[in-house]
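User: Assemble these into one structure.

Assistant: Restating your components, then the assembled model:
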Amino acid sequence: MGDLDLAAGSELNMNLIWASILIPVATAAVIAVANARAARGLAAVGSLASLGALAAFAWQFPAWSTGGVSPEPGGCAWIASINATLGIGFDSVSLLLALLEALLIPICVIGSWSAITDRQREYYGWFMLLHASILLAFAARDVLLFYVGYEFTLVPLLFIIAIWGGPERRQAAHKLFLYTFLGSLFFLGSILFVGWQHHASTGLWSWDMGTLSSFASTRLPANTQYWLFAALLAGFAVKVPLFPVHTWLPLAHNQAPTAGSVILAGTLLKLGTYGIFRLALPMAPEGGAALAVFAAVLCTVAVIYAALICWVQTDAKKLVAYSSVSHLGICMLGLFALNPIGAQGSVLYMINHGLSTGALFLLIGMAYERYHVKDMDQIGGLAKRMPVWAFFMVFFTMSSIGLPGLNGFVGEYLCLFGTYIATGDASTKYPGLLGPGFALVAGTGLILGAMYMLLLVGRYVFGPLREPKADSHGKHGHDGSHGHDAHGADHGDHDGHGDLTGREVGLLVPLALVCLFIGIYPKPILQAIGPVVERTLAPYPAAVERALMSKPQATEAVQAQAKEDDRG
Amino acid sequence: MIAAPAMLSSVLALAEGPLDAHAAPELRWAGLALLLPLASSVLCLLCGWLKVRSKLPAALTIAALGGAFATILRLQGTVGETPVVVNLFDWIDLTWGDGSRFHGFTANVDLYIDRLTVFWMLFVTGLGTLIALYASEYMESDVGKGYTRFFGAVSIFLFAMGCLVMGGNLVMLYLGWEGVGLASYLLIGYYFTKPEAVAAAKKAFIVNRIGDLGLALALFLIWQCYGTVEYAALWKAIEAAPASSEWTAQAIPWLLMLGAFGKSAQLPLYVWLPDAMEGPTPVSALIHAATMVTAGVYLIARMFPLFVVNPDALAAVAWVGGLTALLAATIGMAQYDMKRIWAYSTISQLGYMFLGLGVGTTFGASYHVFTHAFFKALLFLTAGAVMHGFAGQLDIRKLSGLLKVPGFRLVSVLAVLGCFWLAAFPFTAAFFSKDEILVSAFTAKDDRVHLLGWIGLLVAALTAYYTFRVCFRVFFGPVKFEPGHELHGHDDHDHAHDAHAHHGEFHPHGPRWAIRVPLVLIAIGAILAGWPSYRTMLHHDESNWVKTQVAQSSAFQGVAAESHGSLDGHAASSHASAHTEDAHADHGHLVLGMDAHTAVGRLGSLACIVGILVSLYVHLINRGTADALRRTLMGTVATRWIVVGAERKWMVDEFYDWVIRLPLRVIANILSAIDELLLDAGIVNGIGALPAAVGRVFRPLYGGVVQGYAVTMAGGVALVAAWVIWIWLRGAN
């Protein structure tokens, strides 16, 4: 690839990436000084421009689609004394996640037009900063830069939840901040340790992801790698979130405003899975192989545990929030299968989960704007009132439960498949540590997923129409739901409870089309992910072999010890 | 297991023979059979968007399905003995390493076309077209409301069914498998304001999902054993590496079976099908009787090479089929809702098909699928016409003598005809197809399944009884009827039918041409379905069309294993393996001193006629006796359970509810409480309470908010520390 990259091209692609990150920052600055009423328009334009820049990058520099990285590693100095750089660049995995983020942000912004009526300037300003920091995290090739983007997402998100959230927003915001901040400390400690080790060993400072990964994976002893992986896993597990450090998520989701939930589920959680994929797995293959089973057990527990909890929720939003824990369990399980099928499925699953769960949060938010109730004991059968909304609910539910032909299936299927074949058998070139047992147990997630999602659809969307008394109606702004006077004539006091507006349909259609596309023709995406996944997993066959070898030896040692004890 | 080597040798013969598929890009037009229904579903969606208030969606659907049927007809003329693979486009295609076997996973959107494919698609698309035509009138009260949704879902169903049957690999089959599940979900829940309909739809989807998990795991296993899930490559891989005795290879048929039992409503997963009758009747006819529920039979027939190596699995299939047939027949005898009786009869007949598969006659099973599709569609559609005309009345106690009601004569005659077919009256098509299955049961090499022949005969008598119970009650006897309460179960009572009801006298209205024409055509189909057997019987011509269709496919083993009747053409002659000779040796198997074929023919006829005669006396000549009998049985404790059990469906639903759903619900509630109280409030805040004292020291400095931070943070630290210590302890060992 190096010879293909002309200097000029390299600058343009770098500039396009920076543009996609900095446009939202600039937009935030403009919003801060602009008229409050212009804020939402500015935010929409800014987020669309950011998406445009990123799309232009993806279009102009297709190296990512064949497994390359663009631009080539390197970047201008940032903190010269320790050789930290502003190195950015995308490969397929990070670019796809960044594109997902850039797609979701305009949808969130425009989706908030009717929901957010007070302190609009702050709201859209924080949203733009959130966007910029998430993009920065995905684009970073320098671990310190990644840390900055990763960590800074907390600040805007905290404000968004704490100011525009539900009644328990304070508690939710605190919990979110503490949990994830604590997690990041582990992460920061780990990367500082690796950087220091690199300096101690080579005499040079470097924070480039590739350099540090190859250094850590080849030069650090297995024992150190074990600890490194454990620390990174601990750090990122909070963000993913893995059982049992997930308890911040349902509350945060439930209390966040709709757009906050969409971004939280859509891409913020993916920073955790991306971190494991990008840093933990390549840096410490010995640790990854040693801890894969432990992590997989947590994932499997999460799949069933969270799914069962979903099943008894009555709050629609909380149900979808818990479903994220279950879904990400399957996603991470695919990653810990440590073979290309599982890992490709896992990366695809990250994208799919963002699309379908994001859309579900959006849809629940749209109904919430009309009724101000999410409790399925009080509200249900909305298909009668909102058939278009119901169509999208069913569509994204099917996407979420992995109906073949839609996006969810491909990722979920490959994750479980990868898990299944991750046995010690080396004929696939990638021996694994999981196997049929894990796939069987996690596979019950398919059944449980259908159970709770169809419960949601059966009560919330279908069934006899149940509407709450129109008490809170009129207190909040309904910019989005006017123009239904014709309905008002028929239904008396239900005006404002009309079906989706053109704006809302316009938000959902792109998501639905992407879901369909991935479901029907995932080939280009899988092809793009493939080489990156193979590169990431390259050290694993050997590491897994060693892990497999050490197990019987350990048992033999234990047995020998036991025999000696008997004799003694 | 003894028979396995012989069977294997014929698998080997099969793979190098006509099943060696070749790619045929020139047959890409066959994809129209999938594309047209898909296009029609998209157009229906568009109609819904544009709020079309006409019968346009129906017209679009009928045209598309008709086109698909024409495509299949043309394919029937084109396809030869060699299966062809048509690649439409690439779907999932992964490779790694050197890309060799086990270094890649391919599941593209391919069509695998052999005679079995075409055979199945012929009746799926043909009946689909006719039933769509029927539905265009049946659903007309919903024009402008759910009409487009209905036809959109029917189109999705035909598309998914096409993927299931025509797909060239197991992932395509899985796509269709779940796709028909979606269509079924949407159509059962068509009257979505009715809680029962929504619950039934959910139940159908979830119970099917249990089977789907089995299918998904089977796919993984197949790949693990053979390195491919594409049929063409799979047959070759089986040829190259005869199935090992490892648990992986042995487990495949068991998992496939689970999927088949879910979709085809067999024990223990049959409970969704009776409830599925909440859907509009054309849907019950098309999806829940004629086509979708036969997918399980197709799956096992298609994957037969994986079953023949495992006689235990085959015996299990046979027993599950036989027991399901018996159980469903006993329930069907005690129900009063006409659609539900037909639903249980569907389960029972599907049981016969699995019995046939289990005893090795894929031909008999497929033939029964074929004949059953016609007469069961006919029965459901006539039931629907009655329901349509009598404002939703389906209770067989409240309808009588419809043969004499003006406007219902044709419908009644056709329904009575259908009853003869369902009861397998001698010399009807179903008689022959059932005959095939029972003869194979009696003559199977596996001793464990011979008893099933007798069970099958018993079920034949029960079937004749409950079928003619409906027939004599509803269509014969004095004219007497009560209208139902609802209009096709729909909640909007703003239709002219109710106006009828309000004016005192109820006038049932007879169906018009769009209902009558499909009924007549399907009845003709039901009669013609017996044609291959008539030829065999009259001309002693063994070239049975259905047998040829099934023989030249991967379901071939079944035909070879069959005890009698050699195949036409080269399929049989070129594969006269040791195995077929074994089969001929079994031909001398005697039942009651007679040759099995003669015995089954006579006993089957006898069972049918006895059943009909009992029914005739109890339900027509002296209708009081049935009630008297019921009272007598209810009178003594010793026999009471028979009536109560059969009427309450042997409490299987309640059993599942208590044994599975309820405990799961309790566990879920406990976990939910744990998550909120223990993990969250308990551990996080509880451990946090220790350093709360420390927090108090700093309170003057930072204020309450920061104290909250500190407390929770400390809790989090403790939690993560505990985790790390745990990992460390584990690592230290």
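The two ends of chain A are 65 Å apart (CA to CA).
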